[in-house]
Amino acid sequence: MLLKNIKKDYMQYRKNYKHNWNNRQDEIGKEILSLILSNLKNKEISLNTKWEEVNDTDIIKIIENEIKQIKDTLSYLEKAWKENSVAEEKRKIIILEKYLPQKLTEEELIKIIKDIINENNINDINKGKWIIFKILKERYGGKYDWQIVNTILNSKIIK
Predict the structure, then answer these.
(1) Mean pLDDT across the stretch 119-146?
(2) Domain count, the chain
(3) Does residue 115 share a domain with residue 38?
(4) For the segment 79-106, what is each residue's pLDDT rounded down to a tens digit?
(5) Which of 41, 40, 36, 16 is nearest to 26 (CA)?
(6) Which pLDDT does position 50 carry in this prediction?
(7) Are residues 93 and 110 in the same domain?
(8) Which residues, 6+ apart, have CB-to-CB distance to 122 below 8 Å?
(9) Which tens digit of pLDDT belongs to each residue from 13-35?
(10) N or C end: fewer C-beta atoms under 10 angstroms in the chain?
């Protein structure tokens, strides 16, 4: 389903850009979705499957990796005072985030982590971290930020 949406949006950006080649926003959308589609094609080749068989989890990972790379690039562009490039990179992030699932809030994560701790009788957070991470990954895939979870586990909130 996610692949279908990306392809549809890519075609729309191409069509809009073709009719109005001066529109930089459509060009950015076309470029970033083209990159995602080529990464998906590479994933298909590495898995030795058909393109349509690449699942949403793989697509989400590819998009998250691309967003991470863009954010890394952003930090350098901001230091170099490249305002136009910064705006374009931020636009790419906005386009890509549309395809990601809604992230859990910190409050939701705290409740979920407390429930996991109680369900599994975890007394020592440091020793039980791997159990918590494993269960979070199984239940909530790409719906949370690992850094926030790690901050929660290291804070006094859970202990």
Answers:
(1) 85
(2) 2
(3) no
(4) 878 888 888 999 999 999 999 988 889 9
(5) 16
(6) 64
(7) no
(8) 116, 128, 131, 132
(9) 998 877 776 677 888 999 999 99
(10) N
Q: Under 8 Å CB-to-CB from 77, ≥6 apart: which residues?
A: 85, 86, 89
In total, the chain counts a number of residues equal to 159
Cα(15)–Cα(30) distance, integer angstroms: 9
Same domain, 35 and 111: no
Distance CA 45, CA 15 (A): 28
The verdict on residue 82 lying in a domain is yes
Whether residues 8 and 55 share a domain: the answer is yes
Residues 6+ apart with CB under 8 A from 52: 3
DSSP readout, the chain? Answer: -HHHHHHHHHHHHHHHHHH-TT-HHHHHHHHHHHHHHHHHHHHHHHHTS-GGGS-HHHHHHHHHHHHHHHHHHHHHHHHTT-HHHHHHHHHHHHHHHTTSPPPPPHHHHHHHHHHHHHHTT---HHHHHHHHHHHHHHHHTTSS-HHHHHHHHHSTTT-
